[in-house]
Amino acid sequence: MRISGKKLKKILTEETLKKVKSIGEICMESGYPCYLVGGTVRNIILKVPQIDIDIVTEGNIRLFEALPKKLKIKKIVFSQFNTAKLLFKDGCSLDIAQARKETYPYPASLPVVKKSSLSEDVKRRDFTINTLLMGITKKNFGKIYDYLGGIEDIEKGIIRALHKNSFIDDPTRIFRAFRFKERFSFRFERRTKTLIENAIRSGVIKKLTPQRIRKELFLLLKEKKWYKIVLSLSHNGILQELGIKNELKRVIINSFEKKISDFINIKRNRELSKLLLITEDASEKEIKTFSQRVGLKKKESELLLELRKGRKRILTTLSKKEVSNKEIYWLLTSLPLDAVIYLLSKATSQSRKRILLYLNDLKNIKIKIKGDDLKKLGIKVGPIYKKILQKLLDEKLNGKLKFKREEIEFVKRQFK
Ligand code: ATP
Question: What is the set of domains in the chain, with CATH numbers?
Answer without folding.
Answer: 1-155 (3.30.460.10), 308-364 (no CATH), 371-414 (no CATH)
